[in-house]
Every structure is written in C-alpha cells, then in structure tokens.
Predict the structure.
Amino acid sequence: MTLGFTRLLDAFLGRGESAITVPALDGALRPNRKLDEAAERIPVESPSGIAAESGGLLIATGNSVRRLNPDRSWTDIHQAEAKISCIAAIGGGVAIGLETGAVNIVGGRFDGTRIEASADARCPVAIDSAENNLYVCHGSATNGPNAWQRDLMERNASGSVWLHELGTSQRHRIAGELAFPAGVSVARERLLIAESWKHRILRLDRATGKVLDIPLTDLPGYPGHLTRNSAGGFLLSLFAPRSQLVEFILREPKYRRRMMAEIEPRYWVAPAYRAGRSFYEPLQGGGVKHLGILKPWAPTLSFGMVVRLDENCLPLESFQSRADGITHGIVGAVEMGGHIYAAARGDQLIAKLTIASGRAAP
C-alpha cells in the first residue's frame, strides 16, 4: 500500500522513477573524442558481436563469424543459419547466439553443442562462460534481439539469465524479470549483469541468481556488452544515450502506443545505433543544427561510449564519440594484445585504441 502510494506521488511530482533527469557526463565520463580519434579504423558491415580468443579477434556480422587477419582483412570462419545476435569465446571455440533464439557452439571442446530456443528463452543478447558452464542472457520474453527499441518503448522487464551445464546438458533459469539484460561477465563466484533499461550493473550470485548488490547505477546511456580486461576490471559498452526527451516519452503510455502503431520504427522518438541520417528522424529538422553545423553537445539519439571499470565497477576512463562523431552504436569492446577493440554498429567499423591513454595505436 505504501509503495503504491509512493509511486503515485512520484508520478505526480515527477520524481523517483518518474523523473526525466539524465546524469551529466563528468569525472571519468567527461566528454571526449577518443573513439573518433582512433588512427586505426577497420571497416566491417553491421557488427553485432565481438570476442577475443587465442586465434585473434572475432566479429559477428549478419550470418557470419569472421576473424581479423594481420593485414586487416577478414576471413569467414563460420556461416550460421540465421542472423547472429551475440558471440563469446568458450573452450577453444565460440558460442553463437542467433536471432531465432537458438545458441550454437562451434569449435573447441564443446563443438556441435546446440541449445534450442524456448518460449521463455528466445532472445539471446549476451553470453559468457566459466569452466563447463555457459551463461546466456535473454533480453526479452516477447521481443527478439533486433527489436530492442520496441522492448524499451513497451517498458518491458521480462529478461532472464540462464545457466547451461554443458557437461550434463542441464539448464536452469537463475534470474528473471530483468529489464533487458544485455551484458554478462563471470567474476569468480558472481555474475555481473548490465541491465539496460534500468541503466545499471547488477552483481548476482552465480549459483542462485540472487542480487547481491548494485555496484553501478544511473548511467548516462544504455549499458550492453561486458568483458574482463587484463587489469582485473571490465570494459562496458553503452550502445545508445539516454535523453530527457526519451525519458519523457517513456512516461507517456498513450503517446508511445500511437507512435508504435502509426510510425515506422526508424522514425520513433527512441535511442538508435546511428541517428541523423534522415530529415524525417525526430529532432533532425530543427533545434539540433546551428548555422548548418551539428554541435557535439546537440541533443542526440545515438553516440559511442566504452567505459573502463575497475574490479569494483568504478569508472576509470571512458572512450567516447559525441553527437557529431563518427563512431556511434558501440555493441561491444574487448581487450587484446594491449589494445581495446570497439565494434561500432552504427558506423560499421572496429576502432582500435591503446589502453593507457585512449589514443589509437600507431
């Protein structure tokens, strides 16, 4: 009763969950152009996942998994039966999540393993592994991986985390009712989960899925891919920015229902991997450009950001592409060979940066 009254009061006063404020970029998240300043930018068509394994850097694009060659060309190493939504290295091979909901393992100790989609697990958006266990995040129970904008606009919280014991073929749902868990990383006996629509990182018990704490919250964008780095911390990718306009729209159910029913998804007032390519997009016709120039601080529905976290999930450094930048829609970042490789789906490339300064490798 008290909780319900509090929510009604918050809605009336515009506070708490009903607030439309967005945190300022400050401290380790202070605005910069480190992603755009990468001297090495490797073209790749619409990357949907990135992983580092002993053979090199792997990228998922369309139905293909590709390996980066020393001459910066790509070699196809696997062709899936459907579009790939996420990948992760496991046991000398690679686990591949498909937009159909299935998960396949190709190569290594678990080669040939296939996990079929089910009614409550058909949206694989993040994968990680430890020992003989595979952890798969399903972002939504009603929408597929490519319908993430609709899932946000519907304000869903139907995501789940599943444990697959590859040695026994057993599987268990260890966490549910999550607001699009788009990133997962195993940290000893715990799991770190990036809960996108609540803009936070959760720490779960690996065995039970119990929420232990929330080490990072109120992020300025929607968190996704999470990976470990050599310093014992993590790399966190934010695939789209938050904005006051979108936060306002999310609190207007009638408007959202009409928008989704009457307007093409690419023209919704919603975050995107890449915005600003059509005059018909929200905000692109006025209030964004001044004297024909798009300013870096302009309102935007897309950006690029990778955050380097310590072992306690405290931000240490960020790599960004602002409103007028050219490295938007970061769907994943990994560390390999002393460099960070960030996959920008919005601008269809891989940006290579050094770890120490954020400047591109020579």
